[in-house]
Amino acid sequence: MVNLAVFKRKHKSHHSDVEVTFASHSKGSRDNLPTGNSKSPVVSTTCCCCGAALKHPQIEHKLKCMRCHCTLELTSNVEVRTSHISVCRFQQFEDVVVGCKMELEQKGKTLGSDFAKCHLHEIFRPLEIFLERLFSSVSSLNHFCTASNSELGQYDYKNMSSFYATILSLPTKKPFYKLLICSNERLKKPRANFYNDSSVSNFDQLLWVLMILENPLLRQSLKYNENCKPLAPHIRAIQYEVLKRSIGYLASVNEATGKDVIKYLQGLSSRRFDVLVDLLNLYITFHFSRILRKRAKMEACFGSPDLDEFCSDSKLNPRKLDNDFEILPRMVGKFLTSNGRPDLDLPVNFKFNVTEYGNDWHIRTAARLQYFHFVASQRKHKCATSRFYNMLSDYLDYKKDYEQWKIKLKGNAPESLKSFVETLDGLTFSPGKNPETQFTMCQFPFLMTMGVKISIMEYEIRKAMEHNAEQAFLKALDKKKVVDVYLRICIRRDHVAEDSLRCIEAHRSDLGKSLRVEFINEPGIDAGGLRKEWFSLLTKEIFNPDNGLFIVIDESRFSWFNMAYDGLGGSPQNSSKLYYLFGIVLGLAIYNGTILDVCFPRALYKKLCGEPLGSGDYLELYPETGRNIMKMVEYKEKDFEDIFCLNFEVNYPDAWGHKIHRRELCSDGAKRQVTRDNCSEYARLWMDFHLNKAIGNSFEVFMRGFQRVVRGDAFRLFNSKEVELLLCGSRDKDIDVSTLKSVSKYGNGFTSQSTVVKWFWEIFDELNTEEKRKLLEFVTGSDRIPATGISTIPFKVSRLGDDCDRLPIAHTCFNELCIYEYGDGAKLKKKLMVAIYESEGYGFR
To answer: What residue ranges define each of the domains in the chain, with the CATH number in brackets?
Structure first.
């Protein structure tokens, strides 16, 4: 007879106490107790659900994590017996359902109107028994959700979708409730070890988790669906338990399994992928809502007025509702309105503190699993980057979050996924896995909106500028001379590039200061408008074809570095200086929030962010040549060499077409013929040459100038798509006049109801796309929509005076349009058209 002794001890982690239950199977031996005198060595195991680090004696067979209440069976110490496991197949499930429906039809004919609900339960009892047998083991579940006639590891989405659709369509919900109960019990006691070897993938052992996560009603545990009948709170509660454990299992996998999870996600259809991304975002919002509710309850108890308006809503009043699954789904619904902005009366200065979410394993696991989705999306372009944004990130205390993240970057970071990330196409960030260290949202920047990331960057820039201004002031006191606290650029309009380079060279140490621009012999105070015009004129000068720094690729109309200025081609004396200047200009544009009118392919922004380039980037820049190369690689006929007659070398003209340059793609490339066997290598070298090697020196100089300005950690939060949006704004969509109107302000006697104001918005709305952009450029200095959207433009319309023949004017520093109170709408439109097409320069009136 075996004595089963159960002991409990608290394992104190860095931020929280994790209680572990030990089950000792030895026959009354005191040596096996988890005490200080134990002879058994203590080892550490990671919980497969919440990721908690659990310490236990090596001889133990089972552990129970008291954070998530999952029981782990350490199969590495126990012989696994599978002979008794019954394998269930989808066909068996269909047979059981058909048998139950036939019995239902017979009973209906026999009993007629006397047919009671209890008969439904009896009729479908065989289905409940089948579900119990199906969920009796992980092995049974994995076989059930594996595609027929295939090896274990190929998830059968079609049958699993049919499985849930069939159960939900039954006339009784008892089988569905049994399914939830069985799912939760299996997740609580998986009786499987996923951490035997971190180098071995266990993805084929996780198919059952994917199957459970396929449940279409899991979403309803997080948010009320007005179109569906609300579920009972206890049903919502168990669905939430199932969801949180499923997310935890998939997020806590080892590195090898994580790669296979990403491969699986890459193969999903866009619709299924979007559903999973939205579900995880909803789950994160749910837990931020839980933090909000907890704080509201505490402040209600202490009589704090900060959340009085929030508490006044009877549907959300924490004093009246105690069940999380009554109040939280309503709160999530308030947060996820159609316009993406919370519909809650939160205090203006409300912020989520990093101490509130930094130790929440629910948010951590969801963020990490969302990271797998983000990597899959980056590789296969599954969805837009903005789909990963969580709108509640706008309410983070981003300063503390960012400072906490910076501490981790300096060497106190948790165990990272560096090696893992390096295999994922070299992403620029690696979220920590160690749950015992407080995590920050900056570890998962893809979850943060562009607005909060820009706020973080502005915070970093402001700190740097304040520091530089302080140092300038101290130097002025020390040297007893005036030291400017600004970076001042004084230029002549006809010598923009030359004067800009001279000023930057003279103020190398001042690039981190706030920028001020002055046009010589032109009156004007730079409050933003002169700076915008300087950027515009300078980029036009740098892209002037006479300089030859950049060429426009005819195939795509994108600008790219002139390959003839690199390597054998040589360069003009000032070309390196101009590349360096352009790098500084791009950095200053980012740090000063200015949108540039440039047209580069995504490859440039990837290189800025340190992201690797692929064949898709070459195809974007050289679409026609790229398609021809792909056709060559796909050509498998025996006359390959006779048809193509290629060697491993490349020929290209200079910027003016006067000279042809020849370069070898590899050692002795001119003597090496391209064949069917090595054509893939030739294609790879060809693309790498045009994207990297041929422009290596020029890009290095450009990058040196860029990094001379952009030196902070905040830039690492942005990916290449976001950097492009940050630098260039958006021209993809028509200008939303109604949104711009809703955020506009008025001055000098104008209101939203003024007749001239109404005429102006009617005229603005009637303009074509080009005219709208010209008007936007006239008022703001740029025809691009900012990265944060048109609603963030501080647009203002002011009154200049009574009706006259003068033209409207604009203060681009303040995005302000000043118009006279013209007598009719036709005159207003005529004056606007003349103003927007004939304006240039700045000055005093």
So the answer is: 5-77 (no CATH), 84-216 (no CATH), 217-448 (no CATH), 458-609 (3.90.1750.10), 729-838 (3.30.2410.10)
